[in-house]
Amino acid sequence: MSNEAATATTATAAGAAEAGPAPEPIPHGLGSSLPAADARAKTEGTFPYAADLWAEGLLWAAVLRAPHARARITSIDTTHARAMPGVRAVVTHEDVPGSPLYGRGKADRPVFASEVVRHHGEPIAAVAADHPDTARMAAAAVIVEYEVLDPVTDPEQAFEAEPLHPDGNLIRHIPLRHGDPEAAGEVVVEGLYRIGRQDPAPIGAEAGLAVPRPDGGVELYVASTDPHADRDTAAAAFGLEPQRVKVVVTGVPGATADREDQGFQLPLGLLALKTGCPVKLTATREESFLGHAHRHPTLLRYRHHADAEGRLVKVEAQILLDAGAYADTSADALAAAVSFACGPYVVPNAFIEGWAVRTNNPPSGHVRGEGAMQVCAAYEAQMDKIARKLGIEPAELRLRNVMATGDVLPTGQTVTCPAPVAELLQAVRDFPLPPLPKDTPEEEWLLPGGPEGAGEPGAVRRGVGYGLGMVHMLGAEGADEVSTATVKVQDGVATVLCAAVETGQGFTTLARQIVQEILGVDEVHVAPVDTDQPPAGAGCRGRHTWVSGGAVERAAKMVRTQLLQPLAQNFGMSTELLQIADGKITSYDGVLSTTVAEALDGKELWATAQCRPHPTEPLDDAGQGDAFVGLAFCAIRAVVDVDIELGSVRVVELAVAQDVGRVLNPAQLAARIEAGVTQGVGIALTENLRTARGVIRHPDLIGYALPTALDVPDIRIVKLVEERDVVAPFGAKAVSAVPVVASPAAIASAVRAATGRPVNRLPIRPQAAVVTAQ
């Protein structure tokens, strides 16, 4: 380099230094970590949730709930409540003008109990008053006479008990038959497993605002995750045409599953219609626990057959799901449990019996990883038993049995999507183990039990365990999965209209990235969701990444064609020979080069498109059928420290390898995996909604122990396998549910390794991890 050039370079560098560092480029398009548009508002506390809403002439609502798990209602007297100053309306079952029953999977749940109470917390009446305290006092003043009955709380007793519901106690039975029933292995292990009841425990309890309309209808402002289904249910209960009920989705303050309980929405709308005034309801945490659905408590019996090398020969299982009082989505949860009862392993012969039954326990419904999580804990315990019996290292035993693309599920469906289970397991197995804790006073916080724990370092044992999980994406068994989206572009700004609800899974960020990628437009807005838009379905099982994201992609591509068509015609070429990148349109040969803004030239372009995945089919009488659109897999290695005298457990590290198809937003994807793993820690160690004769004990966040920041271990995402699923838009897979499925099983496996105890129940109780002196 010449001296002149060197001097010029130095001067340029000095000038740049004086001007300060160049601003970092804003993330753009798919594959970038585009931040959420509402992140700042949420962190500053200015983001509007339903609990923040207000309206002129607002009334407040309160719901009276049954204190018994099972009872016959002999009388309901609302006289005293109606006479209280400030009370504007009291509604019971007699005031429901339309259908008295509703439900997600099946309409079998009353809006208000009328003759029989079937679970603790069932709504009996609702009150609207001019002050929230008045509403609550008036609800308490409703006099209900009960004849208390013995509840049926053991799901095994439900088969012989008298019918708890006109539809009977059995919701669904699936007998899966695959292979030779006479097949047997040289090694046989058996186990009985119990999974407790977990609550979604969203960060914000349920709230809503109902506003009557001039046409006699009503608008519901609620944190719905499936607004069109909620609208149709509400319209049926209110005796109105669907077009006279509008659901407007407010900010969703946390949703680890569907916000699917309409026991809050329906009384709210009825009160607004009766009073002609806006009515608001903000649930307490206790009401939230009593009202919404929980994870299905499950009883599982397993028998595994393997040959002398540890290869699986046959799996036999019985799976019993406690649905609580009503059907809800229990039929779907049972299908997942039965279908995935053998896990991501090759099993030539499988015979599974699955039942979902009604009891007088709290209602169960859709919670992330439903069905799959429960069976994962059981089949991984069985794999540990086989490994121990044969003296084979647990990871090696699993490697000998893992499935791959082209293998067949016990349902007879061929796995056509990428299934890199062996690669995932090898990644976590080979990842370096964390260092051992030091037995010094300065490091006592590393002991199980937390800071100032009572344990002694000499009583701590370290264990390493594995969990392999699988989930299905989208609906199953013939569910019509469809979503509609509209993309508009004008004045260099794009707008996306899609009724896919942002529950925290990142759909609105993904929609912005899709439009940026396809149209080269930086500024993209996603419109608020309401039922004036075409339906997009529920926000669960990765639906919106796949189906709604696919609809946005198709609509954006149609707009792209509209944008490029005139340019292509002018230059005598097809639109396929033009590309958009960094806001510029160029041709393959460089002859054409212009900006997107110049090409738009003030025009308004828009298009509407749908995405509908390939159809599935229901399981037949033998549990066979192509029931699932796609599958996702995860491997987790857990490292735990266990105080074998106290039974306390500290999760040291969780190493995660996951099959993601394609990384669309790295930061968002990592956050979703970490959140799922953290939820799994709670399931494994602390979360259990306890009941006594069907009555929830301690329905609060003191009695129900969620994991805190002190309970969360180091989470190491050691590998993300990006093998694209060719039938999925962008090739991406859902990422949130499968870590929830695998992590509790991995933690239980690690506790077994540390203690030698069977650990056959989740959450793990201290007595299960205590090792008595021999």
What features would you highlight for this structure?
six-stranded mixed beta sheet, 26% helix, 774 residues, seven-stranded mixed beta sheet
The assigned structural class equals alpha+beta
Beta-strand residue fraction: 25-35%
Give average pLDDT, whole number. Answer: 90
| Helix coverage percent | 25-40%
The beta-strand count equals 31
Taking all Cα atoms into account, the compactness measure Rg is 28 Å
Shape label? globular
How far apart lie the N and C ends? 79 Å
Strand order of the largest sheet: 3-7-1-14-11-12-13
Characterize the biggest β-sheet.
7 strands, mixed
Question: Which blocks of ≥5 consecutive residues have pLDDT under 50?
Answer: 1-20
How many DSSP helices? 16
Pfam family, one: Ald_Xan_dh_C
Protein name: Oxidoreductase
Organism: Streptomyces pharetrae CZA14
Biased composition (Low complexity): 1-21
Structural account:
The structure is a single chain. The chain has 774 residues and is an alpha+beta fold. It contains 16 helices and 31 strands. The radius of gyration is 28 Å and the shape is globular. The model is unreliable at 1-20 (pLDDT under 50). The strands form eight sheets. The chain has a seven-stranded mixed sheet with strand order 3-7-1-14-11-12-13. The longest helix has 28 residues, at 543-570.
Provide the fold topology.
Layout: H1 3-19, H2 39-44, E1 59-65, E2 71-77, H3 79-83, E3 87-91, E4 101-102, E5 109-110, E6 116-117, E7 123-129, H4 132-141, E8 143-148, E9 170-178, E10 187-195, E11 207-212, E12 218-222, H5 227-238, E13 245-249, H6 265-275, E14 279-282, H7 285-291, E15 298-306, E16 312-322, H8 330-339, E17 349-357, H9 372-390, H10 394-399, H11 421-430, E18 460-476, E19 483-490, E20 493-498, H12 507-519, E21 523-526, H13 543-570, E22 578-581, E23 584-587, E24 593-595, H14 596-600, E25 605-611, E26 628-643, E27 649-659, H15 666-685, E28 691-692, E29 695-696, E30 714-721, H16 737-755, E31 761-762
Parallel strand pairs: 1-14, 10-31, 12-13, 16-17, 20-21, 27-30
Antiparallel strand pairs: 1-7, 2-6, 2-8, 3-7, 4-5, 9-17, 10-15, 11-12, 11-14, 15-16, 18-26, 19-20, 19-25, 22-23, 23-24, 26-27, 28-29
Helix pairs in contact: 8-9, 9-16, 12-13, 15-16
